[in-house]
């Protein structure tokens, strides 16, 4: 009997034996290098992010209610990002509150689930922003228009399917790491793909919005030159539309800029995981980076909309239905066509394109036909 017990003790694994990517259960988490510093920074940025997200969502809800439950893309973009930040904050808080209380990582299989949800939400957010950037580019620069449904649910569906498939494909690599639940360092699949995805999304957003802004500037310049040959009625329409267009462009581009700046600091963290070189500053950088989105969006929201929630969403004026279409206005447009004939014999088209992915305002083509 004593011999059998000795053999069983020799054959059983040591309680301190773990994989290279899993912290030893015999060592308290607070003894891990940089634990206090990393978690302190994380809690500070989570608190700031939470305050910012709550502020944005409350303000947008009040604006949505005052505008008869509708608003333009200039308000929907921060709403979408705010909802994603709420989910990310919830998972992130669960991920660090357990180690804070018990000084050990969340046990399996819950750790893999938390890590998978965290990565899935990040994927989903990136696909959402990339989708908004692409369809805006197509509408403004390529004049390609699609109906994406109420509150752009089709974009949500595509982003949801893509992020779910990608998250599920790397599920086996999720688990406990040095400080929390994430992709284990022993597997390079997730960090490599995450780095490629980050570069692709940021590159796509930068390309799309740079070309969009250049296109809008070109249209505004053309309309400014053309308005010099028109009557005051047309000038007023062009001036109003240009102002709305510039306002919407600035708002949407600002949120995309925040997204780009938010995820650039995550590159060193992902590279350090791929190279298996753990540096404390990369962990601090990534926890700050993840929470910068809500803070930056709140700053841009205040700059765009102000501190109060009263008033109508001015970007709703980009609807083509807002342009008067009475018989008197048609007569003015007819007279405008005659006036434009004197200045040019070529066909002129002025199009004011709204970066709102669901609304495009187009000023009626003015055809300089000699028979008019």
TrEMBL record:
GO molecular function, a single term: G protein-coupled receptor activity
This protein's GO CC annotations: plasma membrane
Ranges of Low complexity composition bias in the record: 12-24
Localization annotation: Membrane
Topology of this chain in the membrane: Multi-pass membrane protein
Swiss-Prot/TrEMBL keywords: Membrane, Transmembrane, Transmembrane helix
Major location category of this protein: membrane
Origin: domain of life: Eukaryota
Domain G-protein coupled receptors family 1 profile per the UniProt entry, residue ranges: 48-301
GO biological process terms, semicolon-separated: adenylate cyclase-activating G protein-coupled receptor signaling pathway
Region feature Disordered, mapped onto this chain: 1-24, 313-344
Transmembrane residue ranges: 36-58, 79-101, 121-141, 153-171, 191-210, 252-274, 280-303
Protein name: 7506_t:CDS:1
Organism (species): Diversispora eburnea
